[in-house]
Amino acid sequence: MPFLILLLAVLALIGLISWAKVHPFLAFLLVSLGVGLALGLPASKLLGAVSQGLGDTLGSVLIVIVLGAMLGKIVAESGAAQQIAAALIAAFGTRYIQWTLMVVGFIIGIPLFYNVGFVLMIPLIFSVVYKYKLPAVFVGLPMLAALSVMHGFLPPHPAPTALVAQFHASLGLTFCYGLLIAVPAIILAGPVYAHTLRHIEAVPLAGFVADTRPESALPGRLNSFLSSLLPVLLLAPVLALQAVLPADTAAAPVLTFLSEPVVAMLLSVGVATVSLGTRQGKSLAAVMETYSASVKDVALILLIIGGAGAFKQVLVASGISAAIAGGLLDTGVPPLLLGWLIAAAIRVSLGSATIAGLTAAGVMLPTMAQSHANPNLMVLSIGAGSLLLSHFNDAGFWLFKEYFNLSVRDTLRSWTMMETIVSVVGLAGVLLLDWLLPLVQ
Known about the structure:
- The protein has one domain (1-439).
- The termini are far apart.
- By secondary structure, the chain is mainly α.
- The protein is globular, with a radius of gyration of 22 Å.
- The longest helix is centred in the N-terminal third of the chain and has 35 residues, at 43-77.
- Helix content is 78%, strand content 0%.
- The relative contact order is 0.15.
């Protein structure tokens, strides 16, 4: 019965959003309440789960998304994004812009959380799209594929880092194996698959793209790159120092503080306020008006993300994730494949890659104790499974849909399929490495 209720809930979401044209936030609330009652949650616990899910989800992303929107807006309004786009096109040409953006996404995806990287790079993607009249999904998907793979597969991102600790894996080996798997996954799900999406018509949010300016009115090229990528430049050395210095060093508390994405984004917005704002002739009041406009651009997106969090928490409170995992555990499937299946099933049910990964790890720990599976590969297998089939209950799905201003159908064709390709290729890479490693050792 819980599986049937979950299926009906997903179908209800599809019907309300796609056919009835109900706003996704309202659809999530209606379906969350319906599912909770159908699964037998008391009214008080159900409403508590809705509030907790909405609050926890927004609490984890709201500051980062708002600060990222502010940074993105001033990068666009100041002409810095136009300057960066012009530099990339001059260096590589429009023929290779997909690959250029993919490499940028790969590099910044190592230290940055997905949401931070997404809102940071959106102005750059849109500037390329508008300036050179290129298809938005075709240009943007490879970069976002790189960001997603880094988030799901590799430390220092939350789920992979926690999985390394739980399975007593090697952080270095997991990272190296993850890179070997990540590269083909990104290429196949990014530039290769995006070629089939050239004809998707998308009109991205214009709020993140400023009018084209004459080159003389643009900020300097170095200033544009440094101001736009400052979160990366702040986080990368901090994370590197954390990796090499002992945990009890005197600098550890300072590094922990500086490693928080919120701190990096706030410092970056402060610097950009000067470097792309007041130093370019804008008054501080004018810069603040730009920031106010950026918050309006993402307000509805934040509501949708909060609604998805409420739906996820109702499913968690009902215990359905444990039922799904338990049903798969008794199948006799090989451990690496089983870890992927459990993470994938929870991901499809709940939407959160992090929760899917951590829940699957808890289920697989007893199995790992009785098997000879490589713990580094188990981290990657679960990470790959946690990315499968992103759909209506995933905040990333709505970020992509709303920023690119796509229909639900085109979002499923592009974003959902990209995530699925990444997940399946990741599993194939894990199984291939599992076969090869004993041969070379």
